[in-house]
Specification:
This protein is of the alpha+beta class. The chain is built from 4 helices and 10 strands. Strand 8 and strand 9 form a beta hairpin. 24% of the residues are buried. The C terminus is likely disordered.
């Protein structure tokens, strides 16, 4: 009787150990394959500083939409960023690359300077770089929607900067040291909205998209 009890207890302990190991490996796999993107303000805090979007994931990502929201005392304006430079980890020089196609792990996009982003709004900054209104206290938010690896869902990254202006000089201060990763189901709704605003598709919901694919199949 005692032998049967010991054998059963040993089996339970071994099962528990294997379950712990499986959970550990699963969590490690999820952590290592989790998408991670950075929106980075490089080379200073002024409006001439280039803005980078970096793929730090282990899988390639494909950019669907990049939108900049500028919030001033006159309201929120948005513009889509379509002119950028692509670079891979193997690039030894900084030259324009093909804008379409996936960004490999370690690759990045140069979205232009913040001055370039401000020029998306002629009523804020004219094409000759003269500001038609003060930007002090304003807020710029950069949002990027991507497709990550084999996932069928859109995910995104978002980072905000506060604009400070004094003596005709502008400085940008990041709201956080981190880039917000929009991967949860609730946050993916905002990412989907950015893409819908950019492309205005015939089908504007995930359920309709899936239904259309099924009918075509």
């Amino acid at each position: 009787m005692s032998t049967d009890w010991i054998s059963a207890a040993s089996n339970l302990i071994m099962t528990a150990i294997w379950l712990i190991y499986l959970q550990f490996f699963y969590l490690s796999y999820r952590r290592s394959n989790r998408p991670f993107m950075i929106i980075h303000q490089a080379q200073g805090n002024g409006p001439e500083a280039p803005c980078l979007f970096v793929n730090m994931s282990k899988e390639p990502i494909h950019v669907q939409s990049i939108v900049a929201y500028i919030e001033t005392d006159k309201g929120v304006r948005s513009c889509f960023i379509t002119d950028y430079q692509r670079h891979s980890p193997e690039d030894s020089d900084v030259e324009p690359r093909l804008q379409e196609g996936p960004i490999q792990p370690g690759g990045y996009l140069v979205l232009g300077s913040f001055d370039d982003i401000f020029r998306c709004h002629p009523d804020i900054v004219t094409q000759d770089a003269r500001r038609s209104q003060s930007l002090d206290g304003s807020r710029v938010e950069l949002c990027v929607a991507v497709t990550h690896g084999p996932s069928q869902h859109l995910i995104g990254a978002r980072r905000a900067f506060r604009i400070h202006e004094a003596d005709d000089r502008i400085e940008l201060q990041a709201h956080s040291i981190y880039t917000e990763q929009l991967t949860s189901r609730r946050k993916r709704k905002a990412v989907r909205r950015w893409v819908q605003e950019r492309f205005k598709p015939e089908y504007d919901s995930e359920q309709q998209d899936r239904g259309s694919r099924q009918r075509l199949d």
